[in-house]
């Protein structure tokens, strides 16, 4: 499958990657639309390593479910879905209120140390 992959600092390539194997609780999408967001631009322009080399960029996507784990009950093959990624702490006032998109700690707040560091 085609992907935009970060090979190293400032080095993005369009490449072929193996089809991922799904595990329990997962579905596989055939991406039909994807957006470039500020996070993608920031990662591309950064002069320091922000994510591991080899990461496939793109998290604002829509697609069709083409494979599904046996334990997934909510979705079916052929469903059209949108991926809604939210990076949140799960414990601040906004997260507890169900407003993870307004998390108080995702910009380097008090739990910044819980995020992974990459060499």
From TrEMBL:
SUPFAM superfamilies: GroES-like (SSF50129)
Keywords, in A-Z order: Metal-binding, Oxidoreductase, Zinc
Alcohol dehydrogenase-like N-terminal domain residues: 24-110
Keyword field contains Zinc: yes
Keyword Isomerase listed: no
Family matches, as Pfam families: ADH_N
Gene3D superfamilies recorded: Medium-chain alcohol dehydrogenases, catalytic domain (3.90.180.10)
PROSITE patterns: ADH_ZINC (PS00059)
Identification of the protein by name: Alcohol dehydrogenase catalytic domain-containing protein
């Amino acid at each position: 499958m085609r992907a935009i992959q970060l090979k190293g600092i400032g080095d993005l390539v369009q490449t072929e990657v193996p089809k991922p194997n799904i595990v329990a609780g997962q579905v596989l999408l055939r991406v039909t639309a994807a957006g470039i967001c500020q996070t993608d631009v920031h990662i591309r322009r950064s002069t320091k390593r922000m994510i591991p080399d080899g990461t496939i960029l793109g998290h604002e996507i829509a697609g069709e479910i083409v494979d599904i784990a046996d334990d997934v009950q909510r979705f079916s093959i052929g469903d059209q879905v949108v991926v809604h990624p939210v990076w949140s702490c799960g414990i601040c006032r906004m997260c507890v209120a169900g407003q993870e998109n307004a998390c108080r700690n995702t910009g380097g707040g008090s739990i910044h140390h819980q995020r992974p560091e990459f060499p």
